Amino acid sequence: MMTLLEGADVIDGTGAERVREDVLLDGDRIAARGRRLSVASDVERVDLNGRVLAPGFIDIHTHYDAQIMWDPDLSPSSWHGVTTVIAGNCGFTLAPCLPRDRNALLRMLSSVEAMPIAALNAGVEWSFETFPEYLAFIGHRPKRLNVGFFVGHTAIRTFVMGEGASDRLATDAEIASMRAIVSEAMDSGAVGFSTSQSTGHIDGLGRPVASRSANKAEIFGISDALRDFGRGIVEVATGPDFTPEDCASLSVRTQRPVTWIALLTQPGRPGACTATLDALAEVDGQTIPQISCRPFVVAHGYEDWAQACMISGAFTQAVGLPPSEQRELYASPSWRDRARNALDPDWERAMRGATIEGTWAHRDLRGVALSEIADDRGTSVFDAFMDIGLEDDLATDWRMVLFNDDEEELADLLNDDRCLIGLGDGGAHLMQLCDAIYPTYLLGHWVRERRALTLERAVWCLTGQPAAAFSVLDRGRIEAGTFADLVAFDPARVGTGALQELTDFPAGSSRLVGESVGIEDVWVGGVAIRRSGEDLGGARPGRMISVGA
Question: Cystine design at 350: which of 42, 228, 400, 483 (Cβ 3.0–4.6 Å)?
Fold first, then answer.
């Protein structure tokens, strides 16, 4: 089947300026591009006059590992021009996993990535144990988008070490076993190995996730599998015990690129991100920091808040308690003293500007900064936060901005070739945020409204750049021979709609999503999945992606 896409402004994903051309599709590949291509009379023609035609967007940082089992559309990513997603980030994958560890793994995903435990219990189909079995399982399922997966450190460590995974260092023999699992995963089609040393990553029992019990020798030893294999990428959620500089050393050792999260602007530290980039430029190794083009905003209730803050014993104590016991704890003066003293400065700052999003008892306070409420009540921000929750039976929802609120510095990062846009987190933090909509936010807010970067650069950031960084084969560009993953959009309208809550996950679980505006037509492997702004419900042409050296 051949299709001629006529009269679009083609932005080809290389950074080159747009040009008015036709693009001819032959099956799942691009056959040709040029002005007024001559084709047979029976070729399907699609008029794209007035639209930009770009390669399909590539989202490198998602957590769709579980959601793909009940949502083959991989929404909301598929609504925003994304044609390829990469999951398994931060060391959190569903495989390898033995039956003994399934419940603990789902609790961990619920705790760290805020996936509803009811949806996980109802929606995850345990027909696999090893990572190759998981890839084969997903590979045979119909899906709207192309997918690739990291194999995750926490899953590997638990598979090899059992109950000791979160408590002790690995032996040399265990490291060798974990490296063998990564080699097996790469041989079956994994895009690489992911791990986390982030202090915010806590499992469902209030302990650090398993990967955080690993030392540098273990992370380096496991990652040697990629050096031996000669392809793939390492993804790291950094922390005090594994810094961006350690990522550079890991890249030198493995001779593979290392992408790390996250480079975010921080209030009170203007220029810190650029300083980090400049420092890394002085050391060897190929390190690729991921940035976000959106403010780092979280929306949550009191249970989510406790999980997010539980880097101290006080907050760990609140996680998982029945509501009645949570209320009793939050009213306790002794608990408040411990929690107030242990509160992370970033969270304390975010709480000052927090506003109420949903409430039964305090509708007159919606939109008012918590610092103002605290001043009016003559109390601390922390105590006002707890008091409001107790007065509303813990039913209040809050909106907080943690990072990435400096648009001037962020504009500089978006124009810095050393950064890679990621952190969409599709499939995770489902009632806290929805950053998987970032492609259309970039095109609408940053290109059209702020004019902070050109449309050609924005498309490159969403297509050719991530494809090159991850060595995704034959995607991210519009040229003869590449896969026909394409998106046509209206540059005058493209953007994001308002976030809304849907209750469409297993067991009636809810999530925040945002629709796209101006994403008109999308093709995956030459098959249309969206036409004239409407999704084509039965289209499931996605496949597993391959990465090169």
Answer: 400
